[in-house]
Amino acid sequence: MSNIVATNFVEPHFIEELGEDGLTSTEIATSIAMQKGNLHRLAESLASKGFLELSQIEKVKNHLGQTVTDYLFTVEDAKLLVTQSSTAAGIGYCRYLIQVEKQARELANNPAKMFEGMSSDQLQAMSVLTAKLAEEQKKIIHMSKVTNSALSTAAKQGRILAEITKEKERLEEKLGEAGMWLTTHAILKEYPKAQQFHQSALGRQLTKLSKDMGRKIKQVETTNPRYPTQNAYHRAVIEAYLAAK
């Protein structure tokens, strides 16, 4: 708080009502010129009697670079602690905390007080800075919306591409699979060696060999209304049969 009379006290970096962090035992011990170990013992004694809580502990480094324990106190507990130190510095620091709280509440209730004492040039500079910050905030919000929209579009495009790729792979697999199964009519067209056999006889032989080889026989649709479906045999069966002839 810049408008508080200068003291040797460590200015608290929070006000309880504002919901921020509290005062550490290092800050309090420095402000009232008390050994931190003695301050800890006093705090632990008060805590054991239920007068304050030691619910938060921080690990900090001292001037020797050693990691030590630091208690964290609310402003109310800090005021109680320093008054129990039975020193003039403790009483003075308690009054200081009360003054800091009062000024913080006044600023919270009347933000205009923050600008008291500023020159017209300072106020103008503050106004320009505020306007720039507001403009930057608008840009950030706009960019955030644009980015979110772009990400949403990209995600949709990615999903569509994934679906197209999956369908393409499925069709390729289906086409590849279809090419592995032939009807007797197709066999006679593709394999010249098979043309020595009558179509119905070839079908019977391939049916028997398919069962022997453990290969299933597929049913495929035809354009012949008298025979809407026809047996299709796997190439492995067809080639095995023709190789034996």
Strand order of the largest sheet: 1-3-2
How far the N terminus sits from the C terminus, by CA atoms, comes to: 104 Å
Mean pLDDT: 76
Number of strands: 6
Share of residues in strands: 5-15%
Helix content: 55-70%
Structural class: mainly alpha
Largest sheet: 3 strands, antiparallel
The value of Rg in angstroms is 44 Å
Q: How would you sum up this structure, described in words?
A:
By secondary structure, the chain is mostly helical. It folds into three domains: 16-118, no CATH class; 149-174; 181-243. The protein is built from eight helices and six strands; from the N terminus they run E-H-H-E-E-H-H-H-E-H-H-E-E-H. The chain has a three-stranded antiparallel β-sheet with strand order 1-3-2. A three-stranded antiparallel β-sheet has the order 4-6-5. A hairpin with a 7-residue loop joins strand 5 and strand 6. Helix 3 runs antiparallel to helix 4. The radius of gyration is 44 Å and the shape is elongated. The termini are far apart.
